[in-house]
Amino acid sequence: MKLATPSFFLLFSRALFSGVLFFSLTPLAFSSPATGLPASPVSIGGVFQVFFGLAVVLATVALVAWLLKRLAPGHVSAGGALKLVGGIAVGPKERVVVVEIGDTWLVLGVAPGQVTALHQLPRVESDVTEGAPSSPRFADWLGVVMKRRGVDEK
What is each CA distance from 14 to 18, 37, 86, in whole angstroms? Predict the structure, then answer.
């Protein structure tokens, strides 16, 4: 005769029944005998702790959203026709940007609700920072390191 082991469903239902029974009888065990009223399982400190935790989580979400909005580049080009060459903030809400359209660079003043063309330049072929040393590309650096370590490139 083979003994059947208890199934997961049977064990789960027993645990659930035990939990419901325990939590339904807990207020009776901690009730105040002098007044006959059950003691409240919720305290002011517990409520404060929950609301404080909620406030911390909401503040963290708001901070992360603000940082992502503030620090993320988020430059969307119009099908490759526009390219943002550079820009600088000249005020809390004002920027001067250089936009490349074909072979022309436009210097634009951008303010809330207004974009003003400041100047039009022919496209400059060289890098804007001519005096700065150019940094090697990551792909080139990775190739050198892989060759040095003897990793086969495919």
Answer: 6, 30, 66
